[in-house]
Amino acid sequence: MREYIISAGGITLANQAVTLVFVNPAAGPSSTLEFYEAWASQSANATSAQQRVQLVTQVTAFPTLTSATPAKLNLGDPSSVITGGTAGAAGTSGINASAEGAGTKTVRWEDAFNVLNGWHWGPFPVGASPCIRLRAGEASGFGLHFPVAAATLTNWAFGLCFREIG
Questions:
Q1: pLDDT tier at 139 (50, 70, 90 boundaries)?
Q2: Rounded to whole angstroms, how far apart are CA atoms 19 and 43?
């Protein structure tokens, strides 16, 4: 099974609700994606603050992102069918949205955490129930999202892991 990661660190977030990572499945074989792990944390200060976090799907119009190409978790695997992109288009991924887009977000998993501890969802074994799957050619993408602006905007680390299950 091909597994990939999109992660970032030392990131300054926009002073808004923000999508941290967004992945939109491509059309075609091997493009069904299974998301099984996500995380977010900050290292800017030692001030306790609560932060809401959501795993969402979003339909067009998508966020405006900084391009980020998935990295292989198994070095012998081929490159992902997902490539870096800035518009949330099918078959692309990106991080740290500067604009959220007008598309409707549907919350798939919601939580809150103290920023001193960070937040982690997963990992889940292959086929485990809490994994979230998007079929090839879905009309929506998948995002790790803060629905409210973070109290501290600097030095965030975050990411998503997914499998291409075809």
A1: confident
A2: 19
Neighbouring-strand partners of residue 29: none
Buried b or exposed e, range 122-151, using 16+ CB within 10 angstroms:
bebeeeeeebbbbebebebbbbbbbbeebe
Over residues 2-15, the pLDDT tens digits come to 999 999 999 999 88
- Spans of all domains in the chain: 2-164
Per residue, what are the HEC states of the chain? Answer: CEEEEEEEEEECCCCCCEEEEEEECCCCCCCCEEEEEEEEEECCCCCCCEEEEEEEEEECCCCEEEECCCEECCCCCCCCCCEECCCCCCCEEEEEEEECCCCCEEEEEEEEEECCCCEEECCCCCCCCCCEEECCCCCEEEEEEECCCCCCCCCEEEEEEEEECC
CA dihedral of 127, 130, 135, 140, whole degrees rounded to 10: -170
Cβ distance 136 to 29 under 8 Å? yes
| pLDDT per position as a tens digit, 102-136 | 999 999 999 999 999 999 999 888 777 789 999 88
